[in-house]
Amino acid sequence: MKRLLAAFGCLFFSVPVFSQLLTWSPAFPKDNDNITMTVDATKGNHGLMGFSGNVYVHIGVITNLSTSGTNWLHVPFAWASTTAAAQTIPDGINKWKYTINNIRSFFNVPAGETIKNIAILFRDGGGNIVQRNSDGSDMYIPVYDNNLAVRFSEPPFEPRYVPIPEPIIKQPGDNINITGLASQVSDMKLYLNGSAINSLSGVTSISSSPTIATAGNTEIVLEAKAGIVTKRDTLNFFVAPAVTVAPLPPGVKDGINYAANNTEVTLVLYAPGKTRVSVIGEFSGNNWSEQSQYLMKNTPDGNYWWLTITGLTPGTEYAYQYLVDGNLKIADPYAEKILDEGNDTFIPAGTYPALKAYPVGQTSGIVSVLQTNPPSYNWAVNSFSRPDKRNLFIYELLVRDFIALHDWKTLKDTLNYLKSLGVNAIEVMPFTEFRGNLSWGYEPYQFFASDKYYGPKNSLKEFIDSCHKNGIAVIMDMVLNHTYGPSPLAQLYWDATNNRPAANNPWYNAVAPTAFGFGEDFNHESAATKYFFSRVLQHWLTEYKVDGYRLDFSKGLTQKPSANDAAFSAYDASRIAIINRYADSIKAIYPDAYIILEHFCDDQEEKELADDGFLLWSNVWTQYQEASMGYLPNSNFERGIHTVRNWQHPHLVTFMESHDEERITFKNIKYGNSSGGYNIKDTATALRRMELNAAFLLTIPGPKMIYEFGELGYDFSRCYESTNGENGDCDTKLDPKPIRWDYLQKTGRKQLYDLYSNLNRLRYHALYRDVFIANNITLTRNLSGAIKSITIRSATDSSQLLVVGNFDIASQNASVTFPTAGTWFDYLNGNTIVATGSAQPLTLQPGEFHVYLNRNMNNVTTPVIDINNPGNSLQLLVYPNPLQKSSVAEVFVPERGNVQADLWNMQGQKIRNVFGGTLTRGKHTMRLSGETNNLPAGVYLLKVQTKNKTRFAKILLP
User: Fold this and answer.
1) CB under 8 Å to 637, separation ≥6 — which residues?
2) Which of 231, 240, 235 is nearest to 173 (CA)?
């Protein structure tokens, strides 16, 4: 519809009272006028309909200084303010009015700044219930100057920035009521399709009720003439002809069906019960208005609407929407690209080059895009051998918070870093189009389209291809439970009165049957939902070659009613069946695809799913947090071990951090325990506690996961800059977080990274790989106290592993029993220990830990530690070994005195002095990177000597 919205003068009269969402008096307000605005909550989105409390306005203006037509300025009240000045006056049932005295003065707009519109919303005191236009947009009232102006007041209009009429549903032979207003006494005329239907002189309003004679595009023109000035307003709408009934063409399916000739496309929309559907957009002769030739055909059963569009130019992008029943504009649910007026402007050109512009002023809402013969991507890896799911090391990341440029091409550049860490699977948080740009992605609404904030689709394909080149799988975080925002599936059948999906929506529940949920809740027993998500899951596997999915909130994939979390989490055979149906769709494409569930349900249900081959998240992060902070009562993380749950297969994804949990290093520094000189709040100690945790995470059999930068001891809260603390609903948890790649240059943090890397090297090593993936291992553990230990033996006893650590804040005397007698190798520092095969004492300082192997992976023999009384002896640990830039020598000095540390070659020659001076009793760290510069590769000895003791450590310089 065309509207002339220039600022014109006004007369002080009211708009005739029709059933409109927002009315105002005077009809043509000027910037110095008083104005009264009245809202009718039975119209628009029905946000306040039936509301009985106090109603307030949120209000501002659009001026010549606004950056866009929706950029509010001079807003006098904060959102959710309940100041008396913002309170409205009831004006009957479901109606409220608000009066402003002198528009310019009220908003305090400086002289010389031109007011174009008043922007207004009506809301409850908390800002949780808001009256808006039917599409959720803000409401606007034009502000005029002293020139002649005209506008329609009937048929009713929604007060959008570009006003549009409320739905006009007419057929040939129907009458339509029309009223036009002028701001000055004028000679006024009304025209219907070019023919005059009424003419009056010396008036300020004119009305008519003509009969519509024919179907098709209809135009009504309002004209006013005062002296030599003539102004017009034009109203265009469509009178639908009879709908053509025809079966679907052979071979087509829901969504976009491209023809082999690259010049035509058949669009199919599943929309039972709708009276008419048209395609509007950039096609020839369409121009975003309903046209007879773009009216879709309806199948005989009334369920599907379809249209074949010809004459397309190969390679050209065409923007389009479905116009349903003459008033609802939606994007294609199957579109692989959408345009979003409110968010696309914030996507940098460097992230998405040559992004197609939104058709501003031509339509509203989300717009879909189709393209015949699009630019192809040539895959370098067509057949990827996926890592064994039992030994995955998964790196969970949010593209936005991992790299500053938040794009796929830059993420590709981090693969060497991740590969060196030992990552063999990247789990990317949701990247289907989601609400806004800066979300975590768990608010999806367009399931076939990748979010443009991360870059074009071929850049995503290149990232996945590069991962596969490096032996890294890509796991897509997928939300099947719900939508937020402008989902076309929700919009098609929407209950505006209750602001939720309508009861007849084929895909959604009107109200979630479960104890709790999120957004608009899908009904996974519905045939429409099953079909839709089967298509979604197969799309990303075939088009993008993702290697599997992490299914968010899989607990919610049920129709079983529940009133509390216990009932919600109880065994549910129907939920298992639903999940297996989706798995069947996935396995039809890739039988070995990963399917990871965020489930947290009944043990028996999780065991059945694990037996079926699913991987399940392990809910033990609280225990890892408590253990790291030095609080022992709730520090037993044994349920991160699959055998503890009596599972037959290591299908448990154990982790100590994810996007949902607080960062442990942050908690160590803020809340860590302390005793004497040992303080976990100290950053260096907090990082060593993360090493301790990692040793007890990565040595547990089965797949493991860490969250981005956990390997560097990320210490910013998930509630960074929150105004309401660190509770689970902190107001900033979804906000961008600091990106700290500089941590890699910090010694203690790089040391933590190297520890992860070395532990992963153990997991993948041929000597020990079976220990971490086999189903027939023997595992014993003692994880309830201060001294925690894990012992793992392979079926043949050829490979054995013992991990022991002190999680207390004070020194502890441990009793350790190695599975077999003989020499055991301290994997992380190259030392050895002689085991008796029986209980033997071991003193561990707070935070001290060891990973002992019965087979020497490093092929480096080092002196034996005095196991009987290590607390009173000189101790020397070197790690990582072979040497890296971050390698250090850790020396425990039993008493204060002079300490000498020297580097010797294997010919008995002293090469360099590493340290000389007085040290107090306790643990000390010496950096080795500078002491080995310019030395040839080979084996060296580090000799540490006190008055009465000498220790050697054999080190390998690669």
Assistant:
1) 620, 623, 624, 627, 656, 696, 783
2) 240
Domain 389-617 -> CATH class: alpha beta
Per residue in 361-410, pLDDT tens? 899 999 999 999 999 999 999 999 999 999 999 999 999 999 999 999 99
Distance (Å, rounded) from C-alpha 720 to C-alpha 734? 10
Q: What tokens appear for 311 in the block?
A: 């004459």
> What b/e readout covers 850-878, taking b as 16+ CB neighbours within 10 angstroms?
bbbbbebbbebebeebebeebeebbbbbb
- For position 779, what pLDDT does the model report? 87
Residues of the chain with CATH 3.20.20.80: 389-617
- Spell out the long-range contacts of 169-173 with Cβ–Cβ below 8 A and sequence spacing 24 or more: 169/325, 169/326, 169/327, 170/212, 170/218, 170/237, 170/239, 171/212, 171/215, 171/239, 171/240, 172/212, 172/213, 172/214, 172/215, 172/239, 173/211, 173/212, 173/213
User: Which residue numbers in the chain have pLDDT < 70?
Assistant: 1-19, 727-728, 858-872, 907
Summarised one tens digit per residue, pLDDT across range 814-827 is: 999 999 999 999 99
| Residue 16 pLDDT | 39
DSSP code at position 430: P
Res 783: pLDDT: 96
Give the residue among 881, 835, 888, 836 at the shortest CA–CA distance from 861. 881
Length, in residues, of the chain: 958
Q: Which of 313, 348, 309 is nearest to 332 (CA)?
A: 309
> Is residue 186 within 8 Å of residue 149, measured between CB atoms?
no
Distance CA 703, CA 718 (A): 24
pLDDT of residue 620: 96
**Closest listed residue to residue 843, CA positions, set 815, 824, 865, 864:** 815
Q: Peptide bond before 882: cis, by omega within 30 degrees of 0?
A: yes
Taking alpha carbons only, the member of 751, 771, 754, 784 closest to residue 702 is 771
Phi, psi of 609 (to 5 degrees): -65, -40
d(C-alpha 941, C-alpha 344), whole Å = 61
Provide the residue type at 204 as one letter: T
CATH of 873-958, one of 1.10.1740.10, 2.60.40.1120, 2.40.10.340, 2.60.40.2550: 2.60.40.2550
SS3 871: helix
Please classify residue 386 by burial: count the beta carbons closer than 10 Å to its beta carbon, then call 0-12 exposed, 13-18 middle and 19+ buried: middle
Query: What Rg value do the Cα atoms of the chain yield, rounded?
Result: 35
Where helices occur in 408-526 by DSSP H, the ranges are: 408-412, 415-421, 457-469, 488-492
Domain with CATH 2.60.40.10 in the chain: 22-239, 255-371
Tell me yes or no: is domain 255-371 CATH 1.10.10.60. no
Q: Determine the pLDDT at residue 402.
A: 97
Return the half-sphere exposure (C-beta side, CA atoms, 13 A cut-off) of residue 397.
25
DSSP class of 470: T
The residues, any chain, with a CB within 8 Å of residue 450's CB and separated by 6 or more, are: 336, 431, 432, 433, 457, 460, 544
pLDDT in tens, 570-617: 999 999 999 999 999 999 999 999 999 999 999 999 999 999 999 999
Identify the three-state secondary structure at position 811.
coil
- The answer to whether 190 touches 221, Cβ cutoff 8 Å, is yes
What pLDDT, on the 0 to 100 scale, is given for residue 870?
42
CATH 2.60.40.2550 intervals, the chain? 873-958
Which CATH superfamily does the domain covering 22-239 fall into? Immunoglobulins (2.60.40.10)
Q: Is 624 exposed, middle or buried (0-12, 13-18, 19+ CB in 10 A)?
A: buried
CB atoms within 10 A of CB 227: 9
Q: What gap in Å lies between CA 728 and CA 675, rounded to an integer?
A: 30
Return the closest-CA partner of residue 73 out of 110, 33, 36, 123: 110
